[in-house]
TrEMBL record:
Source taxon at top rank: Eukaryota
Entry-linked PROSITE patterns: RHOGAP (PS50238)
Biological processes annotated in GO: signal transduction
Annotated protein name in UniProt: Rho GTPase-activating protein 12-like protein
GO molecular function: GTPase activator activity
Domain Rho-GAP stretches: 1-58
PANTHER family: RHO GTPASE ACTIVATING PROTEIN AT 16F, ISOFORM E-RELATED, RHO/RAC/CDC GTPASE-ACTIVATING PROTEIN
This protein's UniProt keywords: GTPase activation
Pfam families referenced in this protein's UniProt entry, alphabetically: RhoGAP
GO cellular component terms, semicolon-separated: cytoplasm
Keyword Ligase part of the UniProt annotation: no
Keyword Oxidoreductase: no
Amino acid sequence: VKDYSDENRMHIQNLAIVFGPTLMRPECDSNNFAYDMMLRMHSNQAIEFLLLEFHNIFN
């Protein structure tokens, strides 16, 4: 998918947005929207890092 990102617009950031909430979901949502968004942002950044460094991490 990433290799065809110019055609399908699924760049690393977009892939992280799609997979981040599924792969790194918090145990429970808080009642604080800003805190939940911050957690999602950090999980997306972690997934983005894993996607970028996949070959180095899992080699």
